[in-house]
Amino acid sequence: MAALCLPVLRDPPVDHADVGAWVEALGEATWIVLSGADDRRCRVITTLLHGNEPSGVLALHRWLVERPRPRTRLVMLVANVEAALTPPHFTHRSVPGERDLNRCFRPPHAGASGALARAVVEDLQVWDPECVIDLHNTSGNGPSFAVATQRDPRLERLAGQFCERLIVTDFRLGSLMELPLVEPGLAHCPMLTVECGGALQPEAREVAGSVYRRLAEWPDLTDLVATPDLDILVHPLRVELQPGVSIAYAREPQPGVDVTLWARIDEHNRGLTLPDTFLGWLGERGLAGLRAWDAQGRDRLPELLCERQGRLYPRSPMRLFMATTNVEIARSDCLFYLVPL
Hints:
By secondary structure, this protein is an alpha/beta fold. The chain folds into 2 domains: 8-233, Aminopeptidase, CATH 3.40.630.10; 235-340, no CATH class. The protein contains 9 helices and 18 strands. The strands form 3 sheets. It has a 9-stranded mixed sheet, with helices on one face. Helix 1 links the parallel strand 1 and strand 2 (30-34). Helix 2 packs across helix 7 (202-217). The radius of gyration is 20 Å and the shape is globular. It starts with 7 loop residues before the first strand and ends with a strand.
């Protein structure tokens, strides 16, 4: 095997009862390798690309205590250790001042986050896995779902093992799951993101745990059966703030704030959002403070959302997901995604 860029722990004992102490002992991005009954094949799970999304590493720590013996070599990456350990622990998406690691998997690989992303890419090509599953937490509370970059029966079969919904996105943001589209050496490898639910939701850790257990137990990925009732949504749009627009989350409109979203807007991450669903209040800028991009860079806000007496509503039925109540994520990333129906 060629040399790896990142450190490797092979079949490690878990010496720390506390997951924070365990991550501190890792100290940096680390591959954790479990020998399999058949080490000629390899499967990869990545976690903690965002330091404030700990369910994957919490589930991994708990699962390793059981000393599992997978069917194939199973390789787990605990990625953004530095961000996770920035005080307060598990609250920083990225190292302060650094780029979002999960936006750095396309050239140029600038800065420390870019260098780490490039190291992950090079190591993945060495591992040559059968599949890669990237574990995340949603930025607000909500059900688990999977995300893929294309309609692919292999990805749909994988997604159906863990979630009831698959989002097929045509946004290209530089995320890890896009690597088969940009790295010829990984073009054969199905890569899927599993959003396990909110970081504080106990069930999110259970979803993450199911990924480790099932990927370890399956004899052959080609034997997986499609889930006929998997809900597949395509072509999501990103609703964002316009530059310089202020935002708050509250139960009443905030004076001097351009957009005040309902304090529990993340409740709409479940089910159908109808045209009479109140989403928040708009200040003097009105709808001009928002935009709704599709993957072709078109702002489709006017056909999707509307203002009625200073309040924000959908124009038609839609599915919302990844709606956050975190002001920093709203400013730096997006307010929510939606798929019109």
